[in-house]
Fold GNAT family N-acetyltransferase.
Amino acid sequence: MPSEPTEVQVRPGVEDDLEALTALYNHYVRETAITFDTAIFTPEERRAWLLSHPEDGPYRLMVAAAPDSQRILGYATSSPFRAKPAYATSVETTVYVDPHAGRRGIGTLLYKALFEALSGEDLHRAYAGIAQPNEASARLHERFGFRYVGTYREVGRKFGRYWDVAWYEKPL
């Protein structure tokens, strides 16, 4: 794994982070097919999402922040995999890194903190859907023990074209 950046603090996300987290996510909504959301959000529209990730339990939000400015450099989440009760021991995980902070090991730092936080929870599997192509995300997930399990072909339409999503799973 890449060396961990010592200038980055990883901590649970809090309501004061909402504006910065929304701005970071909106970049990916506007500029990429990494998320299949197609319309940007206001911070108020994202408040319920933030509040659905408390500091304990299986659904977490970890943020990476610059310690001097507290500028958000990225975040990782674990969220419900599916709504039906039998899926309760499965989570879907994701990482978003500020495009100006890439290749600094922030994704690695975030996933390390997220999986440490989840280690005491009653969870069986983590899943990650990666819109294709995205080699950097595939490598990050594989480093954390995820393995490729299949691809949904042309499952999402954004920017006038269809996108595949590769699915990965990790035992917890």
